[in-house]
Amino acid sequence: ATSPGAPASVTAVGGDGQITVDWGKLPGATSYTVYRDSKPGVFPGNGTSLSTIEPPLIDTGLVNGQTYYYVVTARRDGDESLPSAEASATANGSSQNLAAPSGLTAQAGDGQVTLSWGAVAGASDYAIYFATTPGVTPQSGSELVATTSPYVHASLTNGTTYYYVVVARRGAERSPPSSEANATPMQGSTVLPAPQNLAAQAGDKQVTLSWSAVTGATGYTLYFATSPGVTPQNGTALPGVSSPHVHGALTNGTTYYYVVVAQGPGGPSAPSAPASATPTAGTPPVKGAISGALSAGAYAVILLENLSGGTGLVQVQIYTADPLGSPAGQLLGGLSVTASGAISGALPGKSGQAGVYENVTAAPLTSGSYVFTVSGARTGTLTLTVNQLASCTLTAPVQGSTHKAGMDLALTWTSQSSEKAQILLSDVMGTVTYPPQVPDPGGVIVPGTDIPNVGALDVLVSAVWSVKSASAGGLFLGDCAARVNLN
Length: 487
Hints:
Layout: E1 11-14, E2 18-22, E3 31-37, E4 48-52, E5 57-60, E6 67-76, E7 79-80, E8 87-90, E9 105-108, E10 113-116, E11 125-131, E12 142-147, E13 151-153, E14 162-170, E15 173-174, E16 181-183, E17 199-202, E18 207-210, E19 219-225, E20 236-241, E21 245-247, E22 256-264, E23 267-268, E24 275-277, E25 290-291, E26 299-307, E27 311-319, E28 336-341, E29 345-346, E30 356-361, E31 368-375, E32 380-388, E33 392-396, E34 402-403, E35 409-415, E36 421-427, E37 430-434, E38 442-446, E39 455-463, H1 469-472, E40 475-486
């Protein structure tokens, strides 16, 4: 009289060396037993018993090509129900099992927890299992079904710690659970929402990333990888970036995957939806120059660069003196910059960067003369003739080579019509600009104390600022780059 009814809607789905068995839960059932046999007509007296607290059950270690038959019984207060109807499936070596979700994070808020994880190839959706004690499993936890990342688990008790795992689903098939994550909601905690509308536009050896601003964010961190499913846990970080951000020194033909996270007083947000792009070789971009034509010894660094998507970036940086000199000049704000000639219009100041003025054109930039008028505490008129010419070849280090972290790194390159070089090294800690130690063409030794981290290192030589544009017949500028490994 106390036994539950027989489980209904039993399904079996074959995978590689495994079969996922699922069924409908029964009110009052405290556990279930799955009986398996390799021939039809399985029942509790002749089948191999597999116990579980709740569905689904992933039966592993099976022989591919073999068909297995299952029935399920429910238990309550020690009593066992009648068996369900029989279901069968064949373990199929050609099937690709769902992988466990990776990179699960839990961010606490006020009465809520925001969960995020990396996408699983082939998954249709995900199930979240949670509990208020560690060691949560799909059998012991409460279930939140048909979820996607990021997911906000609301109506929680502040001060209580919640523990989570996530399972990928595809029809009746289930993946193994993710690693466990936990968070403790607290009154007054504010979690920023995940950034929206992340877009990746491919260029020549670069990808331009853009996204919508998040209210209250104090900054952003991009994470990238060369395989799908990038998360803040498995991706390479690009901290302190803003939208749009140009990720350079990349390998043409390689696809790069990105997510972006907003930083705020309450910690990082959940990551955005992913975006990807594959850099491809193209026309060398139009670039800019350095000039000493402003009053009181001030310098203007002009950057003209064609972006992907048929637009161009126009940027003027005003310095108190030559930024590649000794001592180096510092950025100088509070000025007005107006462009005319091949482009025209006022250049607004860049948010958060005094002394930097920029605008994005509706069409790509072309070779020609560009005139910039600076007014305010420093004045001057700058005329720049730009010719598109790939002028830089990096001979060392070689793309993909390995170097000892913390040791000196020798850079050598050759270029045309250039007299100074700017060296950019970018690792997981960000990007650092190094002024040249010798005129270009030539080489530079970068002090090893400046690159102590292990992992990927992007080396970019921008050759170069032409300080004698009249005698050189205009600016000829091209970049050369390599990605190397530090260990």
